[in-house]
Amino acid sequence: MNTRAKKLPPVSEISVVVLALVVAGGVYLAAHLPKHTSLAFTTFTVVAAAVLVLVNLVLLTRLTGFAWKTFFQVAKWTLFAYAIFAAALEYIFVKDGVRGSVLVLMSATIVIFAVNLPIHFGFTVARYADN
């Protein structure tokens, strides 16, 4: 059965919310560096984004008749590209002297960002591909 003919879960929509959360939390925290600021907002955005990424993974595991080959082909190369991007950002934070809880939150934000986009791109392309 063609996946366009059946209703798919809101993986793309959830991915966009995850992206908004990690960008908001990361920008908020980075804007306050090197001063000390409350970590509550960024902690909330990281936890919420991580939960939504897990929700997306569960939704994906329940799909049948999906173009998995296309999904993994797109997701694999997207993950490769964003892993390089994430490693560069991590290096910059460490080199700039970011330490402790702030580094943990920034690292979590980067990891969630780098994992979320391959899911988003892979799903978006595969939903229109033929099996």
Mean model confidence by pLDDT:
93
Return the domain count: 1
Number of strands: 0
Uncertain spans: none
Which geometry do the CA atoms define?
elongated
Write the layout of secondary structure elements.
Layout: H1 11-32, H2 40-61, H3 68-95, H4 100-126
In short:
The chain has about 130 residues and is mainly alpha-helical. The protein has 4 helices and no strands.
Task: Please provide a written account of the structure.
- This protein has four helices and no strands.
- It has one domain (11-126).
- It starts with 10 loop residues before the first helix and ends in a 5-residue tail after the last helix.
- The protein is mostly helical and 131 residues long.
- Helix 2 (40-61) runs parallel beside helix 4.
- The longest helix has 28 residues, at 68-95.
Features:
131 residues; mainly alpha; 76% helix; elongated
